[in-house]
Amino acid sequence: MKMNRIKDTTEKISMRLEKFGVPRILQAILLIGLIQGMIFTFIVPPWWHNDEPTHFEYAWLLANRPELAQTAEVDEPMRRELAMSMFQHGYYDFYRLPPKFKSDKPVYIGASQASDPPLYYWLISLPLRLLKNTSYEIQNYAGRLISVLIFLATLYVVWKAMGELSGDGHPLQWLTTIFIALLPGLTDTMTSISNDAGAVLVFSIFLWIGISTLNHGLTWKRLVGLFVILMTGYFTKNTTIPAFPLTFFLIVFVIFKNRSRWLPIAITGGVIVLAVLFSIRWGDAAFWYRVSYQSQPTRVNTDKAPFGEYAFRVEPGEYIGQFLSTPQVRPFRNKTITIGAWMWADQPVTAIAPQITSYTANVLTFNSEPKIVELTEIPIFVSYTTFIQNDTVKAWLTVNPASTTVYYDGIVLIPQEFTAGEPAFPNGDTLSGSWNGIKFENKARNNSAENGWFWLNPQVSKLVFKISNLFGGLNIFMASIQDPQGAGWYYTSAAQTLFNTFWSNPARAKVFLLGGNLTYDLLRAFTAVGLLGLIPFSWKRRKTLRGDLIVFAGFALTMVWGITFVRGATELLKGVPLTPWARYAFPVILPTAFLICAGWFEILQWVENRFHLTHMQSTSLFLTSLVGVDLLTIISILDFFYWKDQQAYVALFAITLIAVFTGINSAREKLKA
Description:
The protein is of the alpha+beta class. It contains 24 helices and 16 strands. α3 (52-64) crosses α6 (119-130), α8 packs parallel to α23 and α22 crosses α23.
């Protein structure tokens, strides 16, 4: 009897939801999302999400000490109690030093979020106001559950947006939505206390409104909706900022909708070209990064140059430098090296010779002692020696400024010790020569500034710095993308981290899927097949594809993923630069998932024809693959935090996957009926 009552009640609720525009398949997806969210909420220990302690602290202050939240101060007793909870749950296990509870200084719990927009934290603070007398662990779970609700709202928004994009009832509508519901990387973010969850929902709503506007035109209702969602994003997180320029492109397409289909695309392209032409210039010294707003190029054509036609120009208060990656610093390890250059100035001045900063595997920093030199308008050679540690992993060679413009030429960086004399370059090649009869190779690249590359308009750099407050900012990024030898290691690391955290690398990227590299290689293949499937998918629909939707979604993808990919490149001067995680790009999870699912939709149709499968069987295989990744993630989390019997997990995984495949087929038959 109880089972019948539950069944009847469930049926009534389902029918009522249908009347409110929530079809049964969406109800099933929302239920899957809820179950998924609840599992991840409670299976990952407290504080084990990205910056979760400081996100929680901000929300807690809004609930309990709002005056401190406004001034970015801390409640030290609360922070110590929170740090103790973090310590008990193993948060500091991956730190070299445990928190100093006996110190008079505030306990370190992570990067402060006090400067972030407050909207998301205000929302998280609501349940915390009711749970003031409970443990921080319980409050943590309560905050996570608010994020779960945001997750469910995101799934609903994705469903509605996909209805606009592919048409209501099209298989891609539910395929894309369930893909997002089952994506472990996204779930890990959407079940944490993090304003990333709020940014995903806000930007998804923006995309929904944008697609709807392109389909049906700009009404007052949609215009108000755009304004509200832009302001909501502004007060949620800066990862939603791309919505502002996207709105401009959206309005251009709406205005010229009834004219030539290529006109808005041409206008958009023209704006981009003009922006690039205004922002980018040519003539800086190649392989030397400017950390400045120097108005002139860092290389200058001068007759005083001892070598070639060019020399380095460093204006007062500015400086430039060159990266040495791990392969480049290997010859220097555990050696006394020589650094030198020909130097002169516009007028007599006291200056500092080029310096080197080296970084070890233990994140220790070593700076060479400054070599003081008196300069005149006549070039002189200056050199000195310094020791490089054996475990150095990278270095930064700096060309220093003075109180007047200083010029450098023939910079030398030699993995040998020379204490007297000066180098000779018989053939005019400054990359190799002899010193006191001893041959050497100069490891400083473009050491005479003969080669140039692109640099940013200083006005653009200043504007970006005011917005982002990033040290070095876009100047560092602009140089890094032209320097694969010096900075390529960062982009390789960024690509791998983005891929892993997109699919599944939960708990602060500390939990890797069982199977290691093989598992991630299989996911790379799965992703590649899906993206390759876009080629026949697009070709078959080439006559019906709409340029406005492609440009709008394409710009959203390119901007958000692009900014995410280079996010840490603006901080390469730091000892440990930020490695971007997919959570920064999840605001465009809708078009990202659509691309993968659209490709696989085409592949599945080929599989049906090739192997004589039904549509239900082929899509069940696809869904089982998604569930498999999800199950493997859950098992990997269990293995990392709780139980360590991997053989038992493999058997459990196989049995569960078979059951899931059978269950999916059965459930789809019932939903179809």
